[in-house]
Amino acid sequence: MKDIQKQRDYRNTPIDNVGIKNLRYPITVRDRRQGSQDTVASVNMYVNLPHKDKGTHMSRFVELLHLLRPEISLEKFSEILEEMKKHLNAASAHLEVTFPYFMEKKAPISHIPGFMDYTCRIIGSSNSIIKTDLVSEVIVPISSVCPCSKEISDAGAHNQRGEVRLSTRFNKFIWMEDMIELVEQCASCDVYSVLKRVDEKYVTEKGYSNPKFVEDIVRDIAVQLKRDDNITWFSVSAENFESIHNHSAYASITWGENPNP
Fold it and tell me: Is 214 among the domain residues?
């Protein structure tokens, strides 16, 4: 059968990224406590396309994705990126796998267990200049209490739920759980799926006694990461979904050498 993708293109315009986006796919990821965890990922896969080529072979992306099964790992990421370049005749390849990750978390006082879900992402890129570049990312819900509100109010202080996005590059493997727990420790208080009245009292009082701006949160996380010799680069942002404003509060810090500036 005639292969249209292999025909020559005469517009003399290369394409940076071409491929598939938002493919839902069952995966298994490493779990520090249980060993492994089954989840469903949203997958993006791209390669570059030279100016002379009319198109890429989209079906090959899905075929190559089977190389990741049964378990997502950093080693598998490097392998599939190289296979993408080889089978699609590309100089560069990019792979993103985003998935919900579940951790059992007990309420602070009643110790009733519940599951918290966190959005996690592994991003891999490979080209002809640098070796495979891997980034691990977690998105963590938090709560914060405004220091200014507490200082100027006769009673109470406004508080809100927020979200911290933490991306890291590293020398050796880092657990998603470690990244999540680091973020939660730097918030006014962390978020739970189950809270009885004794727990609600605890988290309310803990947050009130530990007020933080978004600036405080990203700085506290940055200080901890800079002390870790395993971390070579990070980007951290905090966004508070303000309870008394019609906007969010936001802060971010990026540190370290980025191999893909």
Answer: yes
